[in-house]
Amino acid sequence: MNENNEDIMIIEDEDSQIKSSSKVEINHQELRKPWQILIVDDDYAIHQATKLILKHFSFENRPLVCLSAYSAEESISLIKKNPDLAVILLDVVMETNDAGLKVIKYIRETLKNQFVRIIVRTGHPGEAPEDWLMSDYEINDYKTKVELTQNKLMTSLIGALRSYNQLKLELNNLEKIEQDLQNTKDLLEKIEEENKREELRLSNLFTEEY
After folding, report:
1. What's the pTM?
2. What is the pLDDT along the chain (210 residues), one digit of tens a residue?
3. Could you give all domains of the chain from N- to C-terminal order, each with its CATH number?
4. N or C: where does the chain have the smaller number of CB atoms within 10 Å of the terminal CB?
5. How many CB atoms neighbour CB 114 within 10 A?
């Protein structure tokens, strides 16, 4: 069943507050924005069950927006439209046996997106063994649908959101350092220009006197 829907889910975790020594000033609007996750699975019941499990939870006092895709093509379209996706819960076997693998390659190789956390959630582990996927594809977690209970789903998701948030903090920190370096460079260039003008003025004064 193909049905695009977008629901707001809440994920709660009393121990979820990230302790970071980073002194980066994060935009307050960013801190209030909902986390965006994408559920990719050709089974409509999986989408409904996932949203039901996450219905009453929050993380970092931020709501969770759940997007749904039912094929590789549909998921790629949503990924392009939503560059701030934090987590993707990705099935492997959908319209083809390797549909999910194509999505992973598109994200990591075409979009060069290393931030979004990809959790493979498969009902056909024989088609995509864990050791092979973890070594050959840039995914962040691997779960079979049988083992992914309510608690394990929440644990995996919270870990993925923490990881995503830390990567964003580090990026912001790097951008701040780069901006500080650029500001310092601009200031030095300005001082150098002032010195050159002063030297020229003094040189002209000396010439006029002699």
Report:
1. 0.71
2. 444 444 444 334 444 343 434 444 445 556 678 899 999 999 999 999 999 998 887 898 898 999 999 999 999 999 999 999 999 999 999 999 999 999 999 999 999 999 999 999 998 888 888 889 888 999 999 999 888 888 899 999 999 999 999 998 887 777 677 787 887 887 888 888 888 887 777 777 777 665
3. 6-174 (3.40.50.2300)
4. C
5. 9
